[in-house]
Known about the structure:
mainly alpha
Amino acid sequence: MIGTFVNMGTIVLGSLIGGLVKKVIKEEYSQCLFTAMGLAAAGLGINAIVQNMPDSNYPVLFIASLAIGSLIGTILKLDERISRVSEKHSSDGKLGQGLITGCLLFCVGTLSILGPVQSALYQDHTYLFTNAMLDLVTAMVLASTYGIGMMLAAGVLFMWQGSIYGLTMLLGNFITANMMTELSIVGGFLIASSGLAILGIKDCKTLNMLPSLAIPIIWCIAVG
């Protein structure tokens, strides 16, 4: 799992650099970056949905995934629990939203999903090393907006990629094209939801929706 550890390291490094930058920039500049991140997240989410929706073989799976996942997350009170933790590490209370956005951008993508598979099956870390460089820049930008606490996203990345790595070792190459498509659609909705919250348009409680990502995986494994 050397690729995953390198990926975690770049997120921590990027967060440290961005966190130091945040301390020396003016509040108006910080707010400008805050708005830019909201627009970027919303745009990336919409793009993922539009690109993958035509390729879906299960047109209503994303609806079921969002509904079931949101219900599970609400019952578990994920948003409430994680928000309390993030508020302890953030003076302005915005770290939680930043972590949601960061974790989704770091985890929901072709490189972050297929990377652990390539690493487990072929000891090929190319995807993960490439993803690490992209995440370095993303972490710097996010941390310059939300603070050094963005490095907590490295732990989430480890659990995500570690789970994929472990499942690949047990099941082989279980990630299919259909699964990638459905995951990208659901992930796109979550990223767009996060963007809306950052912009102050609508707080969709994205943390409560995170279990939605598990539904396409379970479904595709079951029918495959």
